[in-house]
Structure formats: structure tokens, C-alpha cells
Write a structure and sequence with these properties.
CATH architecture of the largest domain: Orthogonal Bundle
Structural class: alpha+beta
Order of helices and strands: HEEHEHHHHEHHHHHHHEEEEHHHEEEE
Low-confidence stretches: none
Helix content: 40-55%
Number of domains: 2
CATH class of the largest domain: Mainly Alpha
Mean pLDDT: 90
Strand content: 5-15%
CATH topology of the largest domain: Cytochrome p450
Distance between the termini: 40 Å
Number of helices: 16
Strand order of the largest sheet: 1-2-8-5-3
Bound molecules: protoporphyrin IX containing FE
Radius of gyration: 21 Å
């Protein structure tokens, strides 16, 4: 943030011995992600992610990536996603049924557990809620490793153990399906139908969806509950919308069109706290931008966190204001001033699913609950692979009474 404000749209610096350039304009974001994406690969920073995810969608490059993407795409089509809506609100309702009025919870943990259940159910049709706590713990541990600058032998060994735990679960899901022989039309079935895939490739893809598909959504939801608790006027407006559109009913995909303000709340939440807060690419050849030549081998960074708080596109950027997302307001802003899901060929494959899941879960839970931040709980960001709340998010659950 400081570099961008001090030096502008193109900032060169070094991280250790690595040359890095931070680009801070929507035109450059589009250039890197879309127009000239062939000049980049994901490269170096992903090597570590490969230890967990292998060569799945997120980590593969070039032709291999395109091939993987073609196989997985049908599972994420809008029509298919809509079929997941009921299961998603059911999981939300189950969480709400477990909550107790007046209880203090770590909302970050609650949302992690919820979204892990959802991704397991919707993409693998598996009911792993029972193991969800253990899994969430294993994922959390695994992701911690990406933050380590150097890996001690002890860290490497602990990572191997975590990976083994995760592998065991994923292979179990595959086994169960292979034995049942059912085609359930979910991602697992689609991948199993692709005969060219080895078991290891299958594992890589499932692991990728598991990781990419739950922690991002969990963070978005956690920050949203926090922001709502700090902005009762927006919360009230949202409650009015929920009452008019749902009247206490559990939402389904057909309700989404009637929940525009709830979606605006989520948009604004991901503006201020984008779960993916930075995207890095390595230049394969010399790259010309804004009159400069960025030499081949340089790491180019674009940051959602920085772009989304740029006063040129978001006046008074620290202010939470869902009205920034009315169709009229969106129309006058450059498209790539907002890119929580990236863009171009590497755009998030789960974007439609994420919007649907986010809105449905907020709608389901907010009808019955108004979580409030625990007095004195510190709130800060912890930019790991995703943007987490540094101290978790301790909240007091308040059951709503009267007409929702
Ligand atoms: C709020 C929720 C989410 C956010 C903010 C998010 C963000 C992103 C971003 C920024 C990228 C691009 C990374 C890059 O270009 O380097 C990405 C890629 C990806 N996301 Fe998401 N994501 C979310 C939810 C999901 C969900 C629900 C799934 C799956 C169920 C998913 C699966 C993936 C996959 C597989 C990729 C790699 C795509 C490719 O390279 O072809 N994401 N996501």
C-alpha cells in the first residue's frame, strides 16, 4: 500500500535477490491477466504449493493447464452449480441449528468448518462433516508452511505427516466412488470418466478443489460477519431484503435474483478483504509496460488488496459501503479495478459457485442470527495464501427474535 501510494502505478523493488515489479493500475492488471498473459507463467512461487497440490488446475501451466481446465469446466457450469444450492443452504441451516444464543465462537473456525462441509458435499457428494474439524486443522497446518521462509527438517517432516493425512482422506473418497460405480454428475464423477487420468492426477485435482474451494469462501464470510457487525445500518437493510424475499424460508437458487443487496454486501466485503490478496507471475520474456522494460525473469505482482483500496476508483476507500455495487456505480468503474477472482485464462473456475455459496450462506444464517464482535477482540489481517483474520474472529451469537 505504501509503495503504491508513494511511487505510483509501477514500482520496482527486490525481495532478497529476486527482482519484483508491483503494478497498480486496472489497465496493467488486464494486461497481465488477459491481453498479454502468454508472456507470463505462474512460476516460482507455485513450486511450494505443488508439494501439496501436485499438478492440478491451480498449479499446472500452459497446455497441461488448458487440458485440465477443459476436463473440469463442465462441473462448474451455471446449471450444475444451481443444483448445489439446496445442499448449500442445508449446510448453512445445520450450522445455525448448532449455534446457541449468547455463545462466543471463533467465527473464522465456524466458517471454515461450514465451507469445508459444502465443498465436500457439492463436489464429491461426500459427507465429511464429522471429520471436518480434523481436516480443517490439517489444511490450516499445511497452509502455514507456505509462509515459512526456510524449511527446517522438522517442518518438512511435519508437512509430510499433514500431507499424508489429507491424501488418505482424498483417496478414500475416490475409492468409495469407484466401488459404488455411481455417476453422480459431480466433479469427482466427471474426472473419473476421463480415462486418461492417473490416480495421482485425480488426487491432485481433488486436493486443489478442496483447498481452493473452502478457505477462500470461509475468509470472505468471516470478514462479512465482522463488517456487518460494525455497520448496523447496512445490516438492517439486508435484513429487510431477506424478510421481503424469503420471509424466513431457506433460500434456493431461484431466490438469488431477489437478493441484490446481500450480494452487494459480499462484493464490498471482498473489496476490503479480498481472500486472494495478491497474484504473482513471472515474465518469460522482456515485458514492456508504461514506457518501462521489465526484464525476463522478473516477478510481476498485482494486488487485489492494494487495487481495491485505490482512492481513484473507490473514494474514501476505507469506508464500508455496499452501494458502491449498484449496477450504475459498477458501470463507471474500470472492470479490473476489482478482481477478487483474478481474470483471463486463469480466472477462478469456482467464481459462480463462490458467489452463490456466499449469498446463500449469509442469507440462511443472517435470517436467524446477528453475530456481534466480542468486546475488545483485536481485529487485524494475516496475509498468508489467503487473507485471514490475524487473531481469529471471536463473536457472540445473538438469536434474532420477532419477524425476521
Ligand atoms: C470467495 C471465494 C474465492 C475467491 C476469492 C477465489 C479466488 C481465486 C483467484 C484470485 C484465483 C486466480 C489465481 C491466479 O490467477 O493466480 C482462483 C483460481 C482458482 N480457484 Fe478460486 N476463489 C474462490 C472460490 C473458489 C471455489 C469455491 C473453488 C472451487 C470449488 C475455486 C477453485 C479455484 C481453482 C481450481 C482455481 C485455479 C483455476 C485455474 O488456474 O485454471 N475457487 N481463485
Amino acid at each position: 500500500m505504501q509503495m503504491a501510494r508513494e511511487y505510483g502505478d509501477i514500482v520496482a523493488f527486490k525481495l532478497g535477490r529476486q527482482d519484483v515489479v508491483l503494478l497498480n493500475h486496472p489497465d496493467y492488471v488486464k494486461d497481465v491477466l488477459v491481453t498479454r498473459h502468454r508472456q507470463f507463467h505462474k512460476g516460482g512461487p507455485l513450486q511450494r504449493a505443488k508439494r501439496l497440490l501436485g499438478e492440478g488446475l491451480l498449479t499446472s501451466e500452459g497446455d497441461q493447464h488448458l487440458q485440465r481446465r477443459r476436463i473440469a469446466q463442465p462441473a462448474f457450469h451455471r446449471a450444475r452449480i444451481a443444483a448445489y444450492a439446496r445442499a448449500i443452504s442445508d449446510y448453512g441451516a445445520r450450522t445455525g441449528a448448532r449455534w446457541q444464543h449468547g455463545a462466543t465462537v471463533d467465527m473464522a473456525g465456524e466458517m471454515m468448518r461450514l465451507t469445508l462441509g459444502v465443498v465436500s458435499k457439492t463436489l464429491f457428494d461426500a459427507d465429511v462433516e464429522a471429520e471436518a474439524d480434523e481436516l480443517a486443522q490439517a489444511f490450516a497446518e499445511a497452509l502455514e508452511y507456505y509462509n515459512l521462509v526456510t524449511w527446517t527438517p522438522e517442518a518438512t517432516e511435519r508437512f509430510a505427516r499433514v500431507r499424508h493425512r489429507l491424501d488418505t482422506l482424498v483417496y478414500r473418497l475416490v475409492d468409495e466412488r469407484q466401488q459404488s460405480g455411481n455417476d453422480r454428475g459431480d466433479l469427482l464423477s466427471m474426472l473419473l470418466a476421463e480415462r486418461h487420468m492417473t490416480n495421482e492426477q485425480l488426487r491432485d485435482e481433488l486436493m486443489t478443489i478442496f483447498v481452493a474451494g473452502h478457505e477462500t469462501v470461509a475468509n470472505a464470510l468471516t470478514w462479512t460477519w465482522y463488517l456487518l457487525s460494525q455497520h448496523p445500518e447496512a445490516e438492517t437493510r439486508m435484513h429487510t431484503e431477506l424478510r421481503e424475499a424469503l420471509g424466513g424460508r431457506q433460500p434456493d437458487s431461484s431466490d438469488l435474483a431477489h437478493l441484490p443487496y446481500t450480494r452487494q454486501v459480499l462484493s464490498e466485503s471482498m473489496r476490503l478483504y479480498p481472500p486472494g490478496w495478491v497474484i504473482g507471475r513471472t515474465a518469460l520474456s522482456d515485458y514492456e509496460v508504461g514506457g518501462y522494460v521489465v526484464p525476463a525473469g522478473t516477478v510481476v505482482l498485482i494486488s487485489q488488496y492494494v487495487m481495491h483500496r485505490d482512492p481513484r476508483f473507490y473514494p474514501d476507500p476505507e469506508r464500508f459501503d455496499p452501494d458502491r455495487w449498484t449496477p450504475e456505480a459498477v458501470a463507471i468503474r474500470p472492470k479490473y479495478a476489482y478482481f477478487p477472482f483474478g481474470g483471463g485464462v486463469r480466472q477462478c473456475i469456482g467464481e459462480s459457485m463462490a458467489w452463490m455459496e456466499g449469498v446463500l450462506l449469509i442469507a440462511t444464517l443472517a435470517q436467524d442470527w446477528t453475530p456481534r464482535l466480542l468486546d475488545g477482540h483485536p481485529v487485524g489481517t494475516r496475509p498468508l495464501v489467503t487473507l485471514r483474520p490475524r487473531h481469529g474472529m471471536k463473536m457472540i451469537l445473538q438469536k434474532r427474535t420477532g419477524p425476521c
